[in-house]
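Hello,

I think I submitted the 4'-deoxy-4'-aminopyridoxal-5'-phosphate job twice by accident. Can you confirm which output corresponds to this input? Input:
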Amino acid sequence: MIYLDNQATTKCAAEVVAAMLPFFTEEYANPSGVANAFGRRTQERVEAARASIAAQVGCQSSEIVFTSGSTESNNLAINGLLARHESRHIITSQIEHPSVLAPIEQAERRGFTVTRLLVDSCGHVDLNHLAESIRPDTLLVSIMLANNEIGTLQKWAQIVEIVRKSEAFLHTDATQAIGKIPVSLSDLDVDLASFSGHKMHGPKGVGALFIRQRGRRVRLTQQVYGGGQEKGLRSGTLNVPGIVGLEAALELAAREMDQVPARIGQLRNEFFAELVRQIPDLQLNGPALDSPDRLWNNLNCVFPGVEGQTLALACEQVAMSSGSACSAAHAEPSHVLKAIGRDLDEVRSSLRFGLSRFTTAAEISAAAELIVAAYRRLKP
Ligand code: PMP
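Support: Only one job matched these inputs. Its output is below.
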């Protein structure tokens, strides 16, 4: 199996697993049960991880709430904010992840007004549309930092400049960015940011929501009621191994940030060059590969005349994705590719590839060979 679906999820790194293991079998006390020394130790470990994670993403410990992942973080950010304010207008983009789009759609059903920003052919939000859309009653602007299908990195400074002329809160789904590019949440000047362990060689089922406390303090209404963990914002026994794994994954990403993106970006470019050499009418979806506005591990292409899903099935040794794996429960054509202007045939003929620190040159050339052979068999 050649795994090229690292936008969907990643392999847990060995050092991450090693860091987590003692918290399953030895240090397993409930960190909320601080009445005993056992629990105090795990609580201290959780707080150490919180401090380290906060430092890695450029915020303070008090600004991190642990969740089960970005789906929950996005829901808490959006629903938690909406529940607390009177303003009724929300701005988002057409290319967000379903875990942002769906809670906003639910809010729309309850009477909120929603503007979904247009994007250009590379997936950048239309800044004029953003500026025009902001109203005195705009409560929330939610725009992802990096797109999970076509790897677009938004022009963040310009987005912030526009949003900060208003009172609106700014949320970013940073799931695909944190761990892949250097991110300082303070520098980004956001109010809320979501991220997840399993996109950066950490474990599944753990993530965090950054909630700004410095400057304008952001207040949310809890969405999960119970024991009052995480200062009452997210009840539930903390996933201690997961939290320690999230810390280890971020540390690993930071250690390798000066070499993995360059090395794997080069492999990704070679992979695309080989595919284009063999399939000259292949088309790239999203920003140019040498653009600074594209994630280094992402590739998304139209294979003209062949269904992406059929091609993926014909080439089962290579794990890739047609559309977005995250919304694969509904086999609907990708809303992201439609938003960047691809017609239905092009959307259906698209495949997404995501490389990682584990991807090798040998895997890339074998994958290209298998995909090209399958394409030639299938092409009418
Ligand atoms: N946002 C984006 C951009 C994603 O890629 C994903 C994962 N597919 C999510 C949110 C959801 O994250 P999780 O799997 O941690 O719930």
